[in-house]
């Protein structure tokens, strides 16, 4: 059952991506031959200007646009639209994934609450309580660096290496600065504080945005490690393919709905960011080629050569995915 949940969730995230492309293609007057939900053989379809189909395998979907990978004389072809329209249509897929990653966390925070920079309590014997920090204090800055989330606070404290921290707090509308020396805990350095949990709607939106920004920063850091070859444990052990992702979602489903939603947000965000990379066959590559066309003063690239670049990139991407899938299966075994 958990594997079915994982497959459906993975399919929805991919479908959201294709829906972004579809909506902006229609807005730009691009001829869309088919908008499919699922993959594989058709089990139902209805034909209007666009063929809307449902396919057998619930693994996302796709859209097929006129002139997307070939030359076309049709004025409604993708290749014959303005640069801005083509760029918006391509960018919409990753954008929808990023927006979806934020949206699905809002009800999670409304239900379970989210950590704030205001303290619910200080722990007996902890460095914070000994220094005079109290429940109800709001942490505004650490060592002069403004903080706006609980994640930022814990990250700075954990990376302090036990060095003294100057913590700026707001207490009863007055600002105070208190020096605290973190203590070594089981999972890093701590000062013995507990966050106050909030469940407001506006706060849930802010928390969802903040969590996704934090994940983005971590992703770009990881991508930098990929480029420099400094990924801890090696690339093959740090990257998961569809089998690995479905396995992780399946494990998350066993621990509860909240964890599934968190994981879904992370997958959607990953899909959106990765697709913006200038790698052939990904949306980022198409955006890069559109940018190159703009630099050339609107002079179109040879559509056949462009299609070849994407085809070669797609084959290379599939080869890499097969390798990662092989590693995923070995890990599962």
From TrEMBL:
**Which superkingdom is the protein from?**
Bacteria
Which residue intervals define the domain PDZ in the entry?
110-173
Instruction: Please name the GO terms that the record assigns under molecular function.
Output: metal ion binding; metalloendopeptidase activity
Q: Where in the cell is it found?
A: Membrane
Q: Which cofactor is recorded for it?
A: Zn(2+)
Q: What is its EC number?
A: 3.4.24.-
Show the InterPro entries listed in the entry: PDZ (IPR001478), PDZ_6 (IPR041489), PDZ_sf (IPR036034), Pept_M50_Zn (IPR004387), Peptidase_M50 (IPR008915)
Keyword NAD in annotation: no
Instruction: List keywords of the entry alphabetically.
Output: Hydrolase, Membrane, Metal-binding, Metalloprotease, Protease, Transmembrane, Transmembrane helix, Zinc
* Keyword Transcription regulation part of the UniProt annotation: no
Q: Which residues cross the membrane?
A: 6-25, 88-111, 222-248, 260-279, 307-326
Q: Which GO terms describe its biological process?
A: proteolysis
Which Pfam family would be a valid example here?
A: Peptidase_M50
Task: Please classify the protein's predominant subcellular localization into one broad category.
Answer: membrane
How does the record classify its membrane topology?
A: Multi-pass membrane protein
Could you give one GO CC term from the UniProt record? membrane
Q: Which family does it belong to?
A: Belongs to the peptidase M50B family.
Q: Which PANTHER family match?
A: MEMBRANE METALLOPROTEASE ARASP2, CHLOROPLASTIC-RELATED, REGULATOR OF SIGMA-E PROTEASE RSEP
What protein does this entry describe? Zinc metalloprotease
User: From what organism does this protein derive?
Assistant: Asaccharospora irregularis DSM 2635
């Amino acid at each position: 059952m958990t594997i079915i949940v994982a497959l459906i969730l993975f399919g929805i995230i991919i479908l959201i991506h294709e829906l972004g492309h579809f909506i902006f293609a229609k807005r730009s007057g691009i001829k869309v031959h088919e908008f499919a939900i699922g993959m594989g053989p058709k089990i139902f379809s209805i034909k209007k200007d666009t063929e809307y189909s449902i396919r057998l395998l619930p693994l996302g979907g796709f859209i097929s646009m006129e002139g997307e990978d070939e030359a076309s004389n049709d004025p409604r072809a993708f290749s014959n639209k303005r640069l801005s329209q083509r760029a918006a249509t391509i960018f919409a897929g990753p954008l929808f994934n990023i927006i979806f990653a934020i949206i699905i966390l809002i009800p999670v925070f409304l239900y379970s609450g989210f950590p704030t920079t205001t303290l619910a309590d200080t722990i007996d014997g902890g460095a914070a309580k000994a220094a005079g920090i109290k429940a109800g204090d709001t942490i505004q800055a650490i060592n002069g660096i403004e903080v706006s989330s609980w994640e930022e606070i814990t990250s700075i404290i954990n990376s302090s290496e036990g060095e003294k921290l100057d913590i700026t707090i707001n207490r009863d509308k007055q600002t105070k600065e208190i020096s605290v020396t973190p203590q070594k805990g089981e999972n890093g350095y701590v000062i013995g504080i507990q966050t106050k949990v909030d469940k407001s709607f506006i706060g849930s939106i802010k928390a969802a945005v903040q969590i996704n920004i934090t994940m983005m920063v971590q992703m770009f850091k990881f991508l930098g490690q990929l480029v420099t070859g400094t990924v801890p444990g090696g690339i093959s052990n740090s990257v998961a393919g569809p089998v690995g992702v479905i396995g992780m979602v399946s494990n998350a489903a066993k621990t509860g709905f909240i964890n599934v939603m968190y994981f879904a947000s992370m997958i959607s965000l990953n899909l959106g960011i990765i697709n913006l990379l200038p790698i052939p066959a990904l949306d980022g590559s198409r955006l890069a080629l559109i940018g190159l066309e703009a630099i050339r003063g609107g002079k179109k690239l040879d559509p056949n050569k462009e299609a070849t670049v994407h085809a070669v990139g797609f084959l290379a991407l599939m080869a890499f995915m097969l390798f990662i899938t092989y590693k995923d299966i070995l890990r599962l075994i």
